[in-house]
Design brief:
Aspartate Aminotransferase, domain 1, 2 domains, binds pyridoxal-5'-phosphate, 3-stranded antiparallel sheet, Aspartate Aminotransferase, domain 2, single chain, 7-stranded mixed sheet
Amino acid sequence: MDADRRKEILATQKPEIPWANEPALGGYYTEAEFEAVRAEMERCNQPHIGFNANAPITREFEEAFAAWCGAGDAIANNGAGTGLDMAMMCLDLQPGDEVIVPAINFKAAALSVLGQGGTVVWCEVDERTFQADPEDIERRITPRTRAIYPVHMNGMAAPIDVYLEIAERHPHPQHGPLKVIGDAARSCGAKLHGKRVGSWEWICVFSFHTMKLMTTLGEGGAVVTSDPAAAERMRKIRGFGGDIWGTNYKLTNVQAAVGLVQLSRIDGMIEQRRAVAHERNELLAGLEEITLPHCPDDRWHTYYLYTCLVPREWAGEKRDRLLQLMREDYGIPCVVANPPCYQSHAFLREHTDWSDLPRSEELGKRLFCPPTHPLMSTSDNEYIAAALWETVERVREE
Ligand SMILES: Cc1ncc(COP(=O)(O)O)c(C=O)c1O
């Protein structure tokens, strides 16, 4: 993008939507969702019916979601945080049992390991894809390792096929092959070798939180598995247990009604995100210092976030200066998603060993994500790209 064109865009195309670094509503609703809410509310608005979460529409949503993912079953619940807890409960961790978790991550997966009394073993991520690095995972496996716990980072599938092969090659002495559990909170619909996340893992966890790719009125999630015993167990955990411990992690039936409509629309919303990302790739082509998102040929990226990298020499101070200028001079906030998650979480810092993660520490100082959204117009995308070009040139010269 040449300098004249940039100046013109910045002068005339200031976005009307004040784009947040990670927009507060990740998808959007249409008349169909409003109608679905109304219909379910009307059905429930009677003393003998009420808002029972175990309604037929909740089961319908679970079946549709499982089928869409290519998994045997889905358990709808109130969020990915609790979904990750449910998955960890199925491991029956004993003190000293280890679970391998990428350090470049959201905090929830590691917290779920600690919550069940396990030990978090952090691993590094691949520097181009931000997914847990298979070689580093293998290096960190011990006889106490029970599971590999990757996050499908920022909208792209992690190489689960490779992790599964590692899991087979390093069985636990009592429990057999390691379990592979996915956190797909940001990657609903992402594909590896043409198959969606959720179809690969022992258990995979999704979020329908307001910021995510599809949403169920603020909070919500689902856990999918093709292991009937795990499905039964998580269903019980979600609804006050029985022969096992349980509590209330239910999704409401009105949320399930919204989820069903969102599910019918999510492919379209992802296509819109992909179009924004591909357009941005072209707008930023040639901007030397910025490494654009990399999607290997075997993946299909949902672009929940558009994850960029500054050069090594810009790690830390210069990256932060870039983000400051983007925010203050152009009104474009970018999110650092994510630095190693123990850095900003006192409990994780205190209860995990984070002494040997040089690559993650460095990546945390280099990555950043300019805003993206399915409804972002070409004009706004151009403005963001122009702002980034200008900012990079300014930082280069400082
Ligand atoms: C990767 C990841 N895992 C888990 C969660 C937790 O999701 P929820 O808000 O649905 O509990 C999030 C939410 O931001 C996330 O990004």
